[in-house]
Amino acid sequence: MTSNFGFLGCLQYLPERHRLNSSEFNETSGEEELPIPAFVNRVPAKVLPPGVFDKLSYATLVKIGERLKDAKGILVNSFPEVEPYAAEHFSRGRDYPHVYPVGPVLNLTGRTNPGLASAQYENMMKWLDEQPDSSVLFLCFGSMGVFSEPQIKQIAHALELVGFRFIWAIRTNIAGDGDPHEPLPEGFVERTKGRGIVCSWAPQVDILAHKATGGFVSHCGWNSIQESLWYGVPIATWPMYAEQQLNAFNMVKELGLAVEIRLDYVADGDRVTLEIVSADEIATAVRSLMDGDNLVRKKVQEISAVARKAVGDGGSSVVATGDFISDVLGDHF
């Protein structure tokens, strides 16, 4: 699995829930709190993957959960130190396949994109080089993260309220070929000139790796979360689609490794949060995120060191990978 222990816990739970209630979740289920065994806290239904609210997708997720029980083993892209309770839950066995925590599995070589010319990339990195350490806020919402124009204006207003330096990747459509400046408030670019960059695509790994980056407003895709943890950059959660709501809940409520903007925001097909998140709400979260004394920042920096140990000699990921290879070669399945 490319996902984490938390999402695996959700897939383990769904068939059990289905035996008691065979219908998909609906809008009235949103405030229901679920006793998912892999989580310390009860999990609000509203942070489950949006697919559980669709009949066909729900049936598919239940079927995947059922089939996983028949697997000989399951690899997850996580490590026990970042999700200790869930890792312990799956280590107990309990008539479930052996779970191998082989993460963090990351591509840290940086990414190229034809939408960002080499000169633009160089200018962006040069600008970062000129900023103080941990002073830049990075906002990026994945390849499918598209906001309405009113929401973009609220984010822009929040950036003006807080006054932090920033890099903001704006997608105006799924294709990513729109003008990122078009939906911005009039005069925003001029008012933030010198302290902010707006673009349609950003080299996420390179930005997170840079010492000037101090915070990440993210859609909470698991790869993005792991990249942020690896580089010790704290996240403010703004999930959009797939299992990102559950990831956000996991990071904020279970692990204390992120600051909450929203946990249940959805922009996934027909399911779209209509409420506009206000500039004041965004600004409050961002100020907390960028606070150098924030406990979340300290915990994320500790996890950064642990993540590197996990993939080093004798680390948990290396040991789990070795166990998996031994089990395959020894036909222990």
TrEMBL record:
Gene Ontology molecular function: UDP-glucosyltransferase activity
InterPro entries per the UniProt record, alphabetical: UDP-glycosyltransf_plant, UDP_glucos_trans, UDP_glycos_trans_CS
Record bears the keyword Chloroplast: no
Keywords: Glycosyltransferase, Transferase
Family: Belongs to the UDP-glycosyltransferase family.
Protein name (record): Uncharacterized protein
Source organism: Microthlaspi erraticum
